[in-house]
Design brief:
The complex is a heterodimer. Chain A is of the alpha/beta class. Helices cover about 50% and strands about 15% of the residues of chain A. A five-stranded mixed sheet of chain B has the order 1-2-3-5-4. In chain B, a hairpin with a 5-residue loop joins strand 4 and strand 5. Classes of the chains: A alpha/beta, B alpha+beta.
């Protein structure tokens, strides 16, 4: 029995907003508590403690979803934030991760149409994971000279799936290896990236390192 | 021309200063002339005591000083400053003539001056002329200064109007840029995203129905559409308004660096002074300057990658104070590890337009070599801190 996740949506495209609302409301473990079109309305309804995850569109007609996320999290440090954007803004929220009380997740709008991906991302984000957009994660390449570029292909493959928000078990199934192998890969990854601390924070730190030390190439 | 503007105050002030100066000079000259001619004779003939002679000299000085001041005061009292030149000449002459009578009476009553008709006529006429010319010269000087001041005010007002017109144009340009950006982002991107998502679903259905080849084909089309959206629509929307620009200069630069191919390593460093401005909750840099900075950094980075074949790009920026507490200079240095420029004054390629844009705003742009041998582009841009609302 998973605990109930309360979600608030800020998205100016009405069709997109209702699609998100319907997809998430269809889940037993999720309840959509706010669905508003802009920054102004969001400030009125997102009272501290009223929801667990805020889904924020980056480009809003009356402001910016990133700035809104920072404001909402200041008022409610427990609030998890997931950005939605139709363009790759991975670079944009590397700059806010340092000042955020909880690390943020990011999903492209294309991915948000895929029910499983959307639901998994929302739930994992509510649990404190950093989830990055699967399409963008699959296109990510390590930047030369970075610690991530020194990972073996197998380790990089595991880190990619963790960045998508998959659990060790799900990542193992995807790669056709058992959960224990995933764990041992993760241990080597933490070592290689110089990450210490407890399990959950290490996982977040590894995803943030992935975010900062990879880039995406479109057609050259 | 009878309004008491700052201009007419200048006119009055300069007229008074020059008028009093002329009067004092004239009085000193007459006393000197008296000492050289009349007074000296009296002294030599020893008819009177030395003290009486000195007293006469002082009295002559005082009488002429009083005469000059009376002409000046009279002319001003009759409002010569508010009239045309003929009236000025006429009125001043009348006043000077009227004041000459008591002046001559006073001079004649002194013991040490001659009392002949020729002397009285000559000295009276010279005094009258001196009063007239001295005061008119003062009015003329006042008029010149006044005219220069008015011209200066007119020019300042014109420059102000021009500046306001440029500001209005710039605001309009920003408004249109924002509008196009929002349209591209909101409507067009959303439609393309929905089509891509529809193709994704179709591909899944085809997979499920066992038509894996067709599924892969549809998925490839979805991928193409996604690339078009990421590349073309994004570059178009970026050209009118860079993503992240509404958040801040640093965010927008970080975003464009992050979008470089993964083979390039990048870093951005914003100095403590500019950070401090941001943290103070002010909107540190106006949007127009922000766009200039972002587009210039972008061009610099593109230049380094394309012409210098660089693999690492480092952007450092800081705000520097000026003598005016509200004005700052944003100084940016973009270093790369490429080949650097081949000659001391390298061709700017696409940077020429950016240099021009910076120079229009009082900034500079230079291209050179950094200590490690790679390219270094530095630019400086003055900006005014607008005490905006804290970032929402």
């Amino acid at each position: 029995m998973t605990p109930l996740t309360r979600v608030g949506i800020v998205e100016d495209e009405a069709l997109m907003r209702s699609m998100l609302e319907q997809t998430l409301s269809a889940q037993e473990s999720i309840r959509v508590v706010h669905a508003v079109p802009g920054v102004t309305e969001a400030r009125l309804v997102f009272t501290p403690g009223s929801c667990d995850v805020a889904l924020l569109d980056v480009n809003l007609p009356d402001g910016n979803g990133v700035a809104l996320g920072v404001t909402l999290q200041r008022a409610d440090p427990r609030l998890a934030v997931m950005l939605l954007s139709s363009e790759d803004v991975m670079g944009l929220f590397t700059t806010v991760q340092d000042q955020a009380s909880r690390p943020w997740s990011y999903l492209s709008k294309r991915s948000s149409f895929a029910r499983d991906v959307l639901v998994r991302a929302v739930v994992a984000t509510a649990q404190g994971q950093v989830v990055l957009d699967p399409y963008l994660v699959q296109r990510s390449q390590p930047r030369p000279g970075s610690a991530v570029s020194e990972l073996t292909p197998a380790q990089f493959g595991v880190l990619r799936l963790v960045a998508e928000g998959l659990s060790n078990q799900a990542a193992g199934e995807r790669l056709g290896i058992n959960e224990r192998s995933v764990e041992s890969h993760l241990k080597s990854i933490y070592q290689r990236l110089g990450i210490d601390g407890d399990g959950h924070n290490r996982r977040v730190a590894a995803v943030l390192a992935f975010l900062e030390q990879t880039g995406r190439t479109w057609r050259g | 021309m009878t309004t008491a503007t700052a201009g007419s105050r200048d006119l009055r002030r300069v007229t008074l200063v020059v008028g009093i100066t002329n009067t004092a000079l004239y009085a000193a000259l007459t006393a000197g002339a008296w000492a050289a001619w009349g007074g000296l004779q009296a002294e030599l003939s020893r008819e009177r005591s030395l003290a009486a002679v000195v007293a006469d000299g002082v009295l002559i000085l005082v009488i002429n000083l009083a005469f000059g001041l009376a002409v000046l005061a009279g002319a001003l009292a009759l409002g010569v400053l508010d009239r045309g030149w003929p009236a000025r000449v006429g009125l001043t002459a009348a006043v000077s003539a009227a004041a000459s009578v008591p002046r001559m009476a006073a001079l004649v009553s002194l013991g040490s001056t001659p009392t002949g008709v020729a002397y009285v006529t000559a000295t009276g006429a010279m005094g009258f002329l001196s009063g007239l010319v001295g005061v008119l010269a003062a009015v003329f000087a006042g008029t010149l200064v006044d005219r220069a001041r008015r011209e200066e005010q007119r020019r300042a007002a014109e420059a102000d109007r021009a500046r306001r017109a440029v500001d209005a144009l710039q605001d309009e340009e920003l408004r249109v840029r924002r509008m196009v950006f929002d349209q591209l982002h909101g409507t067009l991107q959303y439609h393309l995203v929905s089509v891509t998502a529809g193709l994704d679903r179709l591909a899944e259905d085809l997979d499920a129905a066992g038509a894996r080849d067709r599924g892969a084909e549809v998925r490839a089309w979805a991928g193409t559409l996604e690339e078009i959206r990421e590349q073309d629509v994004r570059s178009l929307s970026h050209a009118v308004f860079p993503s992240g620009a509404d958040l801040g200069t640093e965010e927008a630069i970080a975003l464009l660096l992050h979008r470089l191919p993964a083979q390039v390593s990048t870093s951005i460093e914003i100095g403590p002074v500019y950070r401090g401005l941001v943290d103070r909750g002010a909107a540190p840099m106006p949007m127009a300057e922000r766009l200039v900075v972002i587009y210039t950094v972008e061009e610099a980075v593109t230049n380094a990658l394309k012409h210098g074949r660089a693999h690492a790009v480092q952007v450092r920026a800081e705000a520097e104070p000026t003598s005016d507490p509200g004005r700052w200079v944003f100084a940016t240095v973009v270093d790369d590890d490429g080949s650097g420029p081949t000659r001391p004054d390298p061709p700017l390629h696409g940077l020429a337009r950016h240099r021009e844009r910076l120079e229009h705003r009082g900034g500079t742009l230079t291209l050179g070599t950094n200590p490690d041998g790679g390219g270094r582009l530095s630019f400086r841009l003055p900006f005014t801190v607008s005490p905006g609302a804290p970032p929402s």
